[in-house]
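Record 1 of the preview.
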Amino acid sequence: MRRRASLVLLSFAVFFAALAPVLRWYAFPRLAKIPPGQYQETVLEARPATLLRYDTMRAEQVEKVTIVQTLKGNVEESERIERHAGRDVVVWDSLSHVQGPDGKTVSQIPERYIFDAHTQAPVHAPGEMVDGDPVRREGIEFKWPFLTEKRDYAYFDAQTRTSAPIHYKGTRTFRGLEVYYFEQTVPWTKVPYPKKMPIPGIDAATLEERTGTTRWYTTTRMFWVEPVTGAPVNGEEIHTEELRGGSLLGGRDRVTAFSGHVRMREDYVDRTVAQVSSQRGLVLLLVSRLPWTFLGLGAGLLAVSLLLEARSRRPGGDAAPGRDEGGAPARGPGPAREPGPAREPGPAGM
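->
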């Protein structure tokens, strides 16, 4: 019985030991994915800010500028691209909507971001664009990969339509979470005008051509990224835009179009931290908790199996063959001998 039990335990030990790497290296890449229909809204604010009034073409300080950023998963486009890409793809239709202190639109920039559902690497397909202009992204945008590493990543900048390194600057604690801090500075760069701007009687698409006034931009962007999920739990930008030269400025060299320290609104930070914390537990379950539990369980079952096998082979571990429980020789099989007639005692000496 002990030997049979040891074999059963050994089978379970092998099963759980084999299941641990299967969960980590096979199941995790196939289960940890961004859902194609995800919808997310984030509100950021710059308080205070400098903003250009396009009716007077003068910059003035305002109480706040609000940026509403939405990400909407396009399931239909994801399925269409997946048929050709041969992998799970997510298509995010994004919109950055900038509002002045009066709630009126300052600018809007739509994007379509196409990426691998697990690795977050860009997938190049028709429809990839920024503000209607076709682009070919390199590197990440909006989200880091699962199991983010302590290294620099290429990050795509929608204003310049180019990618540049975003640098890992260390590990920090943010709202109770261990996060990786990343920072990127985009130097002054000439960028196109947003196609939707509040400039009466002027087509923004031909503004530079018609007036000779160019738009320039610089920013320092900062992200606090939870490394297990790769999700930013906080983001900030020190952002400045200028208009330079041309007839639009009335002989002036330059004017500030927008300047401010853009931060996520507190309620959205709280909501993001809570959401990422719950998702982190699910990812850890696949990456470490279940694999290590199964590996430990397999090792424990193996130890018990070996112990039972050793006890079954130990002398005296089972009853020795040919002896009963008391140690006396066991009577072998055969017909029972009938007792003979009692012998009467003879004369003395016989």
